[in-house]
Amino acid sequence: MKSPTRDKLLEVKNLQVSFLGIKTVTALSGISFSIGERETLALVGETGCGKSVAAHAIMRLLPPESGVKGTVELRGRNLLGLSEKEMTEIRGKEIGIIFQNPSLALNPVYSIGHQLAEPLRLHRKEKKKKALSRAAEALKNMGFANTGEIINYYPSWCSGGMNQRFLIAASTILDPALLIADEPGKGLDRSCLSELEAGLKRLKEEKKTALLLISHDLGFVRNLADRVAVMYAGEIVEIADSSGIFEEPLHPYTKGLLNSLPEKGFIPIPGFSPPLSRLPSGCRFHPRCPLRKRCCIENQPEIIETNGRAVRCFLYP
Ligand SMILES: Nc1ncnc2c1ncn2[C@@H]1O[C@H](COP(=O)(O)OP(=O)(O)OP(=O)(O)O)[C@@H](O)[C@H]1O
Ligand code: NI
């Protein structure tokens, strides 16, 4: 929504995800958003609202018993209609993904250099020497100075923050157009977090990689995101430019999230998100909303777009 003519890289339309079990839970109730080429979109919202499910659905990494509907178009190609073989080609090459725990994703028995160079040797048939020099360059982009030494390190020798940056270097070594980062900063201390932030910034600016950034840390989001989508109980309730969300939030839930920031006085939103198996009537946020009206209890608001932003709330026409 930054500019109406921006080239769309990823377009998610009406994505619905249900987990079939004794009780079927609908984790995503039809979410739609798009990410432009080179753009960073953040997904924020309280725990359990469906952020990780959205990331997994886009990458087709959900368990087979999950029901997925809607479309996920990467440069116009619907990923949900591809064969598993075609999808394997997309993962890593066109869309990279990193999760919060890097030690689970890095292989403990191979050196960092080997793990970075391997995809280049495999997919690009690059010679060892060239692949290793590209690996060193990727490490430099992630803020490491002594790359000649670091390529010989093993993950267990390094801190969580270093490993998270190795993982970003590894997930983007084939220059994917989009990197999905699900809580990349979780569990990292402040200094590791600022190194991670600088690494992601360089990736955006130098490699022109688009980012889908999932994070609880609104400060981190504010520093990196061009646009922000706010989720609540399996729905998107507001999407706007980063400055719109942080300076002029519209939805009462977005306002509540911002008030819980330290600089706004740590005021938590009273109550809890509803369980997905027992959603309230009307607006899903109404039981916790200080501004609720009668219609909010009875009717479900649609998400409405105006002036380059979208909001799901009866306060806005
Ligand atoms: N495989 C699964 N089977 C059943 N339910 C699931 C499955 N995966 C996720 N869910 C449910 O879907 C909902 C959304 O989960 P999700 O992990 O996407 O939340 P989140 O927004 O990423 O939260 P957090 O901030 O804690 O990471 C949760 O209620 C979760 O229990
Ligand atoms: Ni999550």
Automatic annotation (TrEMBL):
A single MF term (Gene Ontology): ATP binding
Q: What is its EC number?
A: 7.2.2.11
Of the GO CC terms on this record, one is:
plasma membrane
Q: Does the keyword Translocase apply?
A: yes
EC top class, as a word: translocase
Keyword Cell inner membrane in annotation: no
Q: How does it sit in the membrane?
A: Peripheral membrane protein
Domain ABC transporter, by residue range, is 10-258
Its quaternary structure?
A: The complex is composed of two ATP-binding proteins (NikD and NikE), two transmembrane proteins (NikB and NikC) and a solute-binding protein (NikA).
Organism equals: Methanosarcina mazei S-6
User: Gene3D superfamilies recorded for this chain?
Assistant: P-loop containing nucleotide triphosphate hydrolases
Q: Name one GO biological process term.
A: peptide transport
Please give the SUPFAM superfamilies that the UniProt record associates with this protein. P-loop containing nucleoside triphosphate hydrolases
Tell me the protein's name. Answer: Nickel import system ATP-binding protein NikD
